[in-house]
Design goal:
Structural class: alpha+beta
Order of helices and strands: HEEEHHEHHHHH
Strand order of the largest sheet: 1-4-3-2
Shape: elongated
Radius of gyration: 19 Å
CATH architecture of the largest domain: Roll
CATH superfamily of the largest domain: Hypothetical protein
Number of strands: 4
CATH class of the largest domain: Mainly Beta
Number of domains: 2
Helix content: 40-55%
Length: 161
């Protein structure tokens, strides 16, 4: 589930506590923690809602000026249901702390062994070095950008890294 930066800032400040999406089926569950540019965002609740039951208060809580603007932000077809999703800022991204840790010789060897094992038993062959070097060279690139550079499919990439 993706958010525009302006909505992420609103979630972090507490000004935004709702999101609306139009999906064939829900792609998040209550209690899910999403990794975003501002840190972890929690899915507090999710339920389908009919368009005519979306209130002006809901619109404002979702960071929109009016209902028309909110509805334009949804998928533009007749398929799917509208989901009303309560969200809240949870915490900083725990990966930041991991990045700041020093890599000991022992941890390096353990990690190296795990990567060798991943390559050895993968149907994709040796992929870990290609992916990790691409991430290193493009640290702010999203998954789709990594897939474009490496040729791996996005779903496979997200499962495996």
């Amino acid at each position: 589930m993706l958010f525009k930066q302006v909505h992420l800032q609103g979630i972090r400040s507490g000004d935004i506590s709702l999101a609306f999406r139009k999906w064939d089926k829900a792609s998040v569950n209550q209690g899910t923690l999403l990794k975003t540019a501002i840190g972890l965002v929690e899915i507090f609740s999710i339920a389908t809602i009919e368009e005519d039951l979306i209130t002006e208060v809901d619109v404002l809580r979702a960071g929109f000026e009016n209902k028309e603007q909110l509805l334009k932000s949804l998928r533009d077809d007749d398929k799917g249901n509208i989901y009303r999703i309560e969200v809240r800022y949870h915490s900083e991204d725990p990966r930041i702390e991991l990045r700041d840790q020093k890599l000991t010789d022992e941890r390096y060897e353990t990690l190296k062994e795990k990567l060798i094992r991943l390559d050895k038993y993968s149907k994709q062959g040796n992929w870990t070095q290609k992916i990790l070097l691409t991430i290193k060279d493009n640290p702010h690139l999203h998954a789709i950008g990594i897939t474009n550079l490496t040729g791996f499919q996005k779903e496979w990439l997200k499962i495996n890294i």
